[in-house]
Amino acid sequence: MSKVTEQLKFLNKISSTTNLPQILIDPKKYSGLRLTFQTKNHNGHMGARVFWHNYLPTLQFYNPRIKFDVVRIKNEDKQKSVPCKLEILCQEGSVTETIDMRNKMHEDIMRDLLDKIEHIPLPESEVMKVPSSLRSIH
Amino acid sequence: MLSVIATPKICVVSSTRRCLSHTASKLYAEEYKSTAMSSNAPSLTKEQAKKRELKRLAQRRAEAKRPAATNPLYMPVTVALRYLRAAEVGRPQSQQTINLTTLVVGERGTAPLSGSVAFPKPLRYIKVAVFTNDENKLKELREKYPNHLIGGADLVSRIKNGEIPVDFDKAYATADIVPALQSQVARILGPRGVLPSVKKGTVSDDITSLLQESLGSMPFRQRGNSISLGIGKCYFTDREVLQNIIAARAAFKAAVSDQKSKKPNILSKTTLSSTHGPGIVIDFA
């Protein structure tokens, strides 16, 4: 795979090939999402981290006015418990809904989020795709 | 009779086929060997090397002249910023720097481009170091610029010992302290491009006016074949980033036109990127 195709794949992963988070959230109703989890995977924090890595870029891409905060807590101690939660913030900044992300797969977290947040699925005509058919460079 | 002949014919064909494939792989191996040989420099004569360099230069020139929109990774700046912000989501603000890289095409041996950009929206506070042995000036400058690094021989020796980190972006000096700087900290400041010198215009006895002129502008310098410069943060608005890009473009072009060579360098492909994000080609001409 050439560098350019790799790059196009990366861009398309953000804007078109990741389907689940292609939603529009009303910025008049919600101000943002706040994720809190560990930097390390132990105690069931992997799903949260993968959710951030796989789905948040797409959510941010189609909702530029929503603020996404990620708080990663450094904790090496496996005995200690660290919160692993996703908070939905309303316009005034207070928490309206909380989703527990511990021991869940990233897809399940996304489905939980879709259940709890009011949204419109993105119309197909608005999906942005970077054409991966190589226009010639030379 | 025919049938008798036909069978060996098939045999022959199949055997030659096998043979062909066999030799092909051998040939490929030989070819591979020869290319591996040619990649070693000694097998190229001087003339050939020169020819190759000229050819590559011509290719790079041609690429520089092609409009940015023909590149598959080209995007308008506003769309590019949307992608970069998405790639940077959830990262600490200190890591969300957007940077601009411009390739420079020119013949070998031309002086590297350098200059400074005055950003309408600066990324951060620029720290300056001033070296002087003049006590009165020291006092005056310390009162005027309390946040900057100002000192004399004492400061030089502390930088030499590593007590003070080299975190300033620019340095100025008066002529009386230059020998001390060159003998003691040239090896520390030189590679970072913050060693005051007469040639650069950063040594002067009238330091106050020099400082006033240059505060609030960010220096840049060509490294290898490109100039790279932090241009904004992800939380800047599109307008602010665009204004910074325009300022950078003006400064880069001024640096090119200031060049005193017969064949000036030209600016080529320009990419906008961020700390964790992809590089996206933008129109910079």
Automatic annotation (TrEMBL), chain A:
Q: What Pfam families does the record tag this protein with?
A: L51_S25_CI-B8
Q: Does the keyword Signal apply?
A: no
Q: Which domain of life is it from?
A: Eukaryota
Q: What is this protein called?
A: MRP49-like protein
Ranges that cross the membrane:
none
Return the InterPro entries for the record: Ribosomal_mL43/mS25/NADH_DH, Ribosomal_mS25/mL61
Entry GO CC = mitochondrion; ribonucleoprotein complex; ribosome
Compartments it resides in:
Mitochondrion
What keywords would UniProt list here? Mitochondrion, Ribonucleoprotein, Ribosomal protein
* Major location (coarse): mitochondrion
UniProtKB/TrEMBL annotation, chain B:
Instruction: Please name the CDD domains in this protein's record.
Output: Ribosomal_L1
Q: Which PANTHER family match?
A: 54S RIBOSOMAL PROTEIN L1, MITOCHONDRIAL, LARGE RIBOSOMAL SUBUNIT PROTEIN UL1M
What protein does this entry describe?
Answer: Ribosomal protein
Q: Is Ribonucleoprotein set as a keyword in this record?
A: yes
Which keywords, in A-to-Z order, does the entry hold?
A: Mitochondrion, Ribonucleoprotein, Ribosomal protein
Main localisation: mitochondrion
Q: Which GO terms describe its biological process?
A: translation
Q: Which residues form a coiled coil?
A: none
Instruction: Recall the GO molecular function terms of this protein's record.
Output: RNA binding; structural constituent of ribosome
> Its encoding gene is what?
YDR116C
Q: Name one Pfam family in it.
A: Ribosomal_L1
The UniProt entry, under SUPFAM superfamilies, shows:
Ribosomal protein L1 (SSF56808)
Per UniProt, subcellular location reads as: Mitochondrion
Family note: Belongs to the universal ribosomal protein uL1 family.
Looking at the UniProt record for this protein, which Gene Ontology cellular component terms does it annotate, in alphabetical order? mitochondrial large ribosomal subunit
